Structures are given as structure tokens and as C-alpha cells.
Amino acid sequence: MPEGSKMKKPDVKVVILGDMNVGKTSLLHRYTERKFKDTISTVGGAFYLKQWGPYNISIWDTAGREQFHGLGSMYCRGAAAVILTYDVTNWQSLAELEERFLSLTDTANHDCIYAIVGNKADLTDPKAQLPQDSDRVSEDRAECEEETGSQVLSTCPTPPASPASLSGVMVHKQVGHEDAMALYGRILRYKGLEENGSLPAEKMCFETSAKTGYNVDILFETLFDLVLPSILRKRNENQQSPTVDLEDCRGGNNKRGKTACC
Amino acid sequence: MESENQPRGEAEGVKIHDPPSESSIPAADTLATSLSLLGNHMFPEHANPVEINDNTIVNKEAPAESVLSDAPAGEQSLDAEPQVNQVKELETEESGIFECQNSMYTQPAGGVTEEADMSNGQDDSGEFVVTMLARGKLEEQGVGVKGRSSPLLETGTLEAPAFLSHRDEDVTAESWRQHRKHVFVLSEAGKPIYSRYGSEEALSSTMGVMMALVSFVQSGDNIIRSVYSEEHTVVFLQKGPLVLVCVSSSRQSEQQLRGELLYVYYQIISMLTQASIARIFEHKKNYDLRRLLAGSEKILDGLLNLVDSDPSFLLAAVHCLPLASSLRDSLSQILQKAITPNLVFSILIAKNQLLTIVQEKTVIEDARLEPADVHLLLNLIGASSAFQAGEIWTPICLPLFNPDCYFYAYISYLDPPECTVCLLLLSTDKEAFYAVAECKRRIEEAMVAQNSLSLIAKAQSYSVSQVGVSDLRHFMYKPFDVPDNYRQLTQFTSPEMEAPYSSEEEKMRLLDLYRYMHSRIHSTSRPLKLIYHVAERETLLAWVTSKFELYTCFSPLVTKACAITAITKLLRWIKKEEDRLFIRYPPKYSTTPNPSKSSRGGKSDQQDSTDNGFLSLL
């Protein structure tokens, strides 16, 4: 929390949508707190501010419950990126994205980026059970390996070649990567976007595990990198606005002002 | 003493006002069948349905115009024997009860040897003694709730706090039946909506029977209110298209149980609003409301746990954290300064207790925030903490303030990662998140400047020893409207529960004693003003006047005179400390409505009935 500092103005807005119990809060928690813990059903929406380099990214973690459906479009207003989350072990959760959540994104920016994320990959995919690492997440990796490593040792006497034993049983995977990519295509069509002018499906469909951390950092960081142009454009627009922003003079990183975005 | 006293009060014996008698014979058959069906599930130890009827008192209330009292017929068809009256005679314990109605006089219900037992219960006296003995034995074992001798009782009565999810419970298991208090919510079409224990699907037939009971009685222009069996009280509450049922072995009064069901109803309303629920069921009688409540079960579970463990609900008053009045005032001022258009309530909470509450002037001019609404808010916060850094924005309805409209609640912790101090800002503007979040920024800043957080961290509840009355173990004091907090939030004060009430079991036992005292004080048939009750391990005195309601618990050997002196001292102490114990002068602010924000202007701002949007799905 900022110690009584001036409110950091968010530069860009990212919204996580998806049916309940697919793990939206857990994904975000894994990313920001580097932990996986039991969460309780989110009420309404929860707002988080994430520092990404010199930028402040606001993330809305929304409730998947139908009860809060009406607020969805409010959370999505002016969003630069929307993370549509489903559960790889639950076909319905993918269907819900199209049925319930896609229309909520009508209030998002016209150049909004869509990512489709299949969470709980650790339940179906052996390679998601051990944390996949990139160079950037080395500390996380150490931590995770510690966790899962000990689990593996205690639960399976044989070498962890078949990580299925980690959780005991492998759950049947109901949603394949292709299904998600097909949905991505349909979303582009719904938005009236050209497939070749947009980001490719391969790049925007992820399978993650909030439990092991698999692909979680990659997901958020890819998105953050992708929304940068949107941030810069916005700052440009603000610069052209006739209002003088006094904060301009102080900001060392850029001559452009940071004015409220949403 | 909470053992055998439940059918007292309005429920003395069999009370059936049957509809015109031509329908009563076949009708009663159906009712008896329904009862035994329900009984088979709820009380399987009575394998024989006839036996259930023997022990069951059905208590119905007829609309005044159609009362055609036909009690004998009812009894006949229900197989209810005069023996049912016995239950009520067992109301008193080995301990003596000394009650006063306005002036002090001894009431026949005192002690086992009093006339009350002679008048009605004589033919059962043999059984009576046996019951008493059995109960005494249970009490020795320290079982909080008595009334049956099953060894499973101990596990069943205590709500293990760690065991939070009861969703997967096997509803055919004996342990499921042993739960102290079941709560079911169903729709008028008999569709299950919520069950405290076990999944609703598994219970759909049970709920179907419940609905059959309700509609059967309804078909005779009657309303079913309660069913008494030896060990259980079944209470029904119908609210709009929802039916709420409580099956309790807690020996609470019907009135109290109905009050608890009302809290459950309000919590559902707080999530969906009354208007939406009405509209939904108007459209589609057999709508499955679980679609909209999915994910909210924990909020209802949490509420029911709180209702059992927190006397705020019983007293319908809020408990605020004792705080030096200067500190409370400064916190209020901080809240008062950080305002934005359409903000109506600013509430600061620490350790799940109120620190202060500041409200918009015009909103509260002719309505006040009801304790029940505050309870629902506190429960929501308790049951929904996202992880620390997040700021929550969610619609919430305050059912007693206005059951048909939403407020938008901003919830954020001020002291992560401890998360004990919580700020709650309520706005009527759905879009006001960023403006309200900015208010929080300002509040946070001011609190840092004044070092408020560390001062709040030092605040804590007090020990009864501070009162300086040796035999006093615990008390609950609820003042009524006094001139300077006229029309303000009803509050009560109470010290920590200390030894011998430090274990969960003992806490519950003391609360049960208080509930019993409360039920006597508030009995509809014979309300009392003063009760001096010598229980087995403590002595209690409850006293209600036009100024306050007071419940005290003393060590067992205290004399009546001692207790009276102690209470005088206690009242003096409370008077002296009241600035610290209560929120005395809740400040108000005025947020000028911002006309540019919306077309709604002036007073109608508060009545923002923005549809949450889910209706579009129908």
C-alpha cells in the first residue's frame, strides 16, 4: 500500500472474466503474491494496481457468479485487455465465455486485446504440474520446486516421471487447446476484426495452472507488453488535451502526463 | 434449563385452528403423512411414524377471519395425545427460577416441585423424573445442549469452526441429523435454494415434503408456523416467494428461531434485492434461484455461524469496539472530510467491530441504519475478504433500509497484511468506484498523519474485571434510545468472555443461557421484566426497563441481594464509561449531489434502483 502517497493513476485496465470457480482470483493471486491458496468466491469485483515498469496497470478481478453479471460491463469499460478464463476440465466454462461474458466486453476499448486462458492445467497436463519456467521467474521457480518437489517425494515413491500421481488421478481434459483457439477466432469475428490483422490465436491462447504457477507469469507479462502501445497512445492523447497536468513536471520517466484513464 | 422448555410461550400444547371441518379429516391424513415423511428423514430414530405424531405439536396460525377453532379434531387426526403437554411442564430445571412481572413475585414455574408439575404433568411424573435424571447426567458431561442421550450429540452440537464446508455431507448419515440447527431455503415451487448442511440436490425430496406441509396448511387458509417434537423445533417462515425452514434442537424459542430465519432472508435480499426475487418468480415459478446465489453459500453459512456465536443478532444491536472518545471523534472527522457525491455511509471497522459510522445527512433524515443491515455488512466483509491489496466494489442491498435497491459498496483494508482495519464506503452510484477509491486514499493519508492505525491496534475489548464487581462474570447491556443518540444505531456493550467461558463449548452454553433469558423476557404470551435465574453453574439476572435491556451472569453462589447491588455498580460503571463504550454522537456529512453525474437529482439519489442486469437473462 502506498504510505499515504498520492494515488497512483492507473494507465491501463486489464479485466479478468470467466465463470465462477475457474480460478480467476487464484491466477491473479499467483501472479501478484507468488502463492496459491484457497480463495473464497469473489463478490462484485476486486481492483488491484500492479506496477509494471514505469506504468500502473489496473487489474479487475471480477466475480464469475451470475449474481454480479450486471456489473460486468462496468468493469470492462475502457479495458485495454480482457482475460477470458475457463477451466480445462469443464467444457461448460468455455461455453459460458461465449454465452455470458463475451457481450460484456462490448464496453471495452475498440482495440482491446483478448486472451483466452484455460486454467487448472495441472489437473490434466503432466508438464503443467511442475512449474514451467522462464528466465524471468527464477525465484518463483525455486519456491515452487520446493513445494511441489516435497509433494512428489512424499506421494510417489517412483521417480516423478508420471506426475499424475501428484494429485492421485488425472482428470479428463474436456477442453482442448484447439477449442480455445476456435473460440478466439469466433471472438475476432464477433468484434469484426480481421484475423490476419489481429494477434494470432497461438499467441493469445494460454493454458495455465494457478496452483503450480505454470504459464501464469508468461500470461500476464505477455499481456502487459501487448498493452504498452495502448498506454503510450493514451498518454499521447492526454498530452494533446488542453488541460495542463501539473504532475507532468514531476514525472521523471516521461514528459507525458499521467491522467486518469478510466 | 434450555433442555425442555421450548414449547412454552405461544406454543403451549397443541394449537391448531383448522379450516372448516368438512375438509379436516382427509386433510389431516395428508398432514400426518407429510409429517411422518419429514420425520423419517429428520428424526429417523423414531422409525415408527405414529410415534412421531405422538410427539409432535403442530402449531398453525389462522388468519383471524377464518378461525374456526377445532382443536380436538386436529388432535385426533394427528394422534396427538395429551402427553404432548408434558414437554412444556419440563421447562424448569433443578435450578430455581424466580421471575418478576413488573413487581417481584414468585412464579409457579420455579423448581421441580412447584405446582406447575402437579397441575398437568402428574400422570407423567414417572417419566418426568427419568428425564430429569438423564438430563442431569448429560449436564455432568458438560454437553452444551441437552435433551437427548445420543453419544453422537457432542459431536453434533458443536460447530467445529474448522469444518466450514458442509456441502458434501452425506444427508443420510446420522451425523447430518445431529446438527444442532438446520436451515433450509426453498422456493414456493418446492425447489431447493439453500441448505446449511448437505447439498440441496440430495435434499430435494426433504424440501419437497416441507413444501407439501406448507402448501397443505395453506390450502386451508392457514399458515404453518412451527412443528414441535420432543427434540426438535421446526419453524417455518414464508417471505414472498421464498420459504425458510429451521429445524433446531437448540431449545431456542420459536420467536428467536424465526428471527434467525429472517436474517437469512435478509442476507439473500442483500444479494439480490426483494424486487428482483419477486420479478424472477413472477416470470418463472420454478426458477432455480441457486443460479443467482451460486457462490454465496459461504456468506449464508457464515451468517448462520455468526448468528449462533454472536449475541448481536439476538439483541438486534451492534457491538462497537471500545475506544477513547477523542480517538473515535478524530476518526469520524477523517471520514467526514473524505466525501464524494453520492457517498452515503462511511464505516470503519476493526476486528469485526464498529469503530465509527458517518452518514450522509439527507439520506438519514427520516430513516436510520438498522442494526440488522450493519450485521449483514459485517458478515459480507467477513465472508468475502479478497486478498489484501485488492479494493472490492460490489452491489449490496440493505434490506431494512430499502429492500429493493442496491448500494455500491467499496471495501478495502487499511492495514495489509494484517487486515484488521476495514473501510467500507457505500455509494448510490454504480460508476463511482474511482471517486470512492480516491476517498479511501484521502482517509488513508489522514490516518497516517494522525497515526490512527497504531492507536486503533491498541484498542481492544475490555475485561469484566474492569467493572470491579467480584461476582460478575459477564454481561450484555443494550441501552435504548437516549436523548443524545436518539434515532441512532442501536448498540450494546459486552466484555470479553473470559474463564470459565473461554472454551467454545462454554461460550455456547452461556449464550444458550442468555438466549433462554431473552426468550423469557420477550415471550409474547407472558413477557417478563426481571428474571433471577439460578442455573446449575451460574446465576443469571436479566432486567429490562424503558431505558435499557441488561443480561448479567454471576458466579453460582451469589445472593439475590448481592446481585442487585452488583447491577447497581455495573450500571454506574457503564454510565461512567459510556463515551468509550458506545458511539455517542455519530457525525453526518452532506455530499451535494452532482447533477452532471446523472439525471437523478436531489433526494431521489438515494433510491437508485439500478437493475443489476441479470434479469436480462430471463
From TrEMBL, chain A:
Catalysed reactions listed for this entry: GTP + H2O = GDP + phosphate + H(+)
Topology of the protein relative to the lipid bilayer: Lipid-anchor
GO CC, alphabetical: Golgi apparatus; phagocytic vesicle membrane
SUPFAM superfamilies (alphabetical): P-loop containing nucleoside triphosphate hydrolases
Claim: Metal-binding is one of the keywords in the record: yes
Family recorded in the similarity comment: Belongs to the small GTPase superfamily. Rab family.
Alphabetized NCBIfam families for the sequence: small_GTP
Name used for this protein in its record: Ras-related protein Rab-20
Source organism per UniProt: Myripristis murdjan (pinecone soldierfish)
Source lineage: Eukaryota, Metazoa, Chordata, Craniata, Vertebrata
TrEMBL record, chain B:
Annotated ranges, domain FUZ/MON1/HPS1 third Longin: 472-578
Compositionally biased spans, kind Basic and acidic residues: 1-20
A biological process term (GO) from this entry: protein targeting to vacuole
Pfam families to which the protein is assigned, alphabetical: Fuz_longin_1, Fuz_longin_2, Fuz_longin_3
Region listing for Disordered, in residue ranges: 1-26, 586-618
Residues annotated as domain FUZ/MON1/HPS1 second Longin: 342-443
Function (record text): Plays an important role in membrane trafficking through the secretory apparatus.
Family: Belongs to the MON1/SAND family.
The protein's name: Vacuolar fusion protein MON1 homolog
Organism whose genome encodes this protein: Myripristis murdjan
